[in-house]
Design goal:
Number of strands: 5
Structural class: mainly alpha
Shape: globular
Strand content: 5-15%
Helix content: 55-70%
Strand order of the largest sheet: 1-5-4
Number of domains: 2
Largest sheet: 3 strands, antiparallel
Radius of gyration: 22 Å
Order of helices and strands: HHHHHEEEHHHHEHHE
Number of helices: 11
């Protein structure tokens, strides 16, 4: 079966990766006063990824991480152009763009609402100044969602034949232990990166938090919130996560159909059971078994 190549996917991948690399070239000039204000602002608006919360003392360092992802997106576009079936890298990078901009929008709005300071007119000016950034965040969120949803329709669940002859049974093919290990490690890493962006929101109020609440309770609440938000968001919208996009895996019900929101919610809560993350090693897969969900392989 011939897979149709979507020109929209290819064009979006090339344009977003190219704009991001251009943003990287413009960014250093902000520190040396070589460009006008509008050009410096443009370097922010061109970038679909923002890891600036990583390092404040060496501002160029985190841009290398962004460049790495843009190069991966370009590579994904080339592979997709050569073979329309090869969409793993594109899906992975667009899922990173999706969560990064969603968290950026939440942090941006939250910081303005929670900690507005100054006169009424100053607050209004700050909000108006932030609007273009919010619109751009929203645009990248929509584009990445659209691409991921479009490419999801290109895949179906892979099946395998168990047994032979008249006793042969065709059933969905489950993801391997190695793939599940990658899901666990990579998804947790991406979740931590997203959590770091929320933590950035608290930096200016550390003393206040320490005095009245304490950092540890806040950190625990953030970890719980972020893990629930991350898995509910991806597994409900796309029935997959960034790491599962790389291994072409999908969360399904017993029959290979889409898991319900209730199943996804139960599955997410079970992740907090002690030692649950390692249950897959013995094929226990508690968050699969107790929620009656499965992680199956995809195919074209």
């Amino acid at each position: 079966m011939k897979i149709k190549r979507h020109d929209t996917v290819l064009m979006a991948s090339i344009l977003i990766a190219g704009a991001g690399l251009l943003s990287f070239l413009l960014y250093p000039m902000r520190f040396f006063g070589r460009t006008p204000f509008n050009t410096r602002r443009l370097s922010f608006w061109l970038s679909s990824l923002d890891f600036s919360f990583f390092n404040f003392h060496r501002p160029l360092l985190y841009h290398y991480i962004e460049v790495f992802f843009y190069i991966l997106l370009l590579l994904g576009a080339v592979l997709y152009m050569l073979n329309a079936k090869e969409i793993r890298l594109i899906r992975f990078i667009f899922s990173i763009i999706f969560i990064n901009n969603l968290m950026g929008l939440m942090v941006g709005v939250g910081s303005r609402i929670l900690w507005m300071q100054g006169s009424h007119w100053r607050i209004r000016y700050d909000l108006i100044e932030m609007v273009p950034g919010f619109v751009i965040n929203g645009g990248f969120i929509f584009i990445s969602w659209y691409i991921l949803d479009l490419l999801k329709k290109q895949k179906i669940i892979s099946t395998e034949t168990i047994g032979s002859g008249t006793s042969a049974v065709i059933s969905p093919e489950e993801s391997t232990i190695g793939a599940r290990l990658l899901h666990h490690g990579l998804d947790n890493l991406i979740c931590v990166l997203a959590l770091s962006k929320i933590s950035f929101l608290l930096i200016e109020r550390v003393n206040y938090i320490n005095k009245y609440i304490g950092l540890y309770p806040i950190f625990v609440v953030l970890v719980i919130f972020m893990r629930i938000f991350y898995y509910l968001l991806f597994e409900h919208l796309f029935h997959s996560t960034p790491a599962k996009f790389l291994t072409e895996s999908r969360v399904c019900n017993e029959k290979g159909g889409e898991a319900s929101f209730r199943q996804i919610f139960i599955r997410t809560l079970i992740r907090f059971v002690p030692f649950e993350p390692w249950s897959f090693i013995f094929r226990g897969d508690w968050h699969d078994k107790w929620s009656k969900t499965f992680v199956y392989k995809e195919k074209e």
